[in-house]
């Protein structure tokens, strides 16, 4: 189970990237209402937060895309992602 909403949201982002890769997309825009998640994914230097293991996986996965952009959107524009992250906090396993 994720220890924070930010951790849950970055895990959701990783799953979204895997899904888009499995679907064969090569150009992706990933949106999140978490400034922390977007900042950590965009960061080029060392990240010592709890998100680091997942952002490391995200960065490795990005090598499989032609282009990938990360954008912050206000919560009102990203209700589905917030609901998924909040629901994911209630479970101890990943699920779709």
Automatic annotation (TrEMBL):
Could you tell me which residue ranges the RNase H type-1 domain spans?
A: 14-87
- Signal peptide bounds: none
Molecular-function GO term, any one: RNA-DNA hybrid ribonuclease activity
- PANTHER family, alphabetically? BNAC02G40300D PROTEIN, RNASE H TYPE-1 DOMAIN-CONTAINING PROTEIN
Name recorded for this polypeptide = RNase H type-1 domain-containing protein
Q: Which organism is it from?
A: Gossypium raimondii
């Amino acid at each position: 189970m994720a220890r924070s909403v930010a951790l849950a949201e970055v895990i959701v982002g990783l799953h979204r990237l895997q899904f888009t890769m499995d679907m064969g997309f090569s150009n992706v825009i990933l949106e999140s209402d978490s400034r922390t998640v977007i900042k950590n994914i965009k960061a080029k230097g060392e990240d010592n937060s709890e998100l680091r293991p997942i952002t490391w996986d995200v960065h490795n996965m990005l090598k499989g895309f032609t282009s990938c952009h990360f954008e912050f959107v206000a919560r009102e524009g990203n209700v589905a992602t917030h609901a998924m992250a909040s629901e994911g906090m209630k479970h101890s396993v990943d699920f779709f």
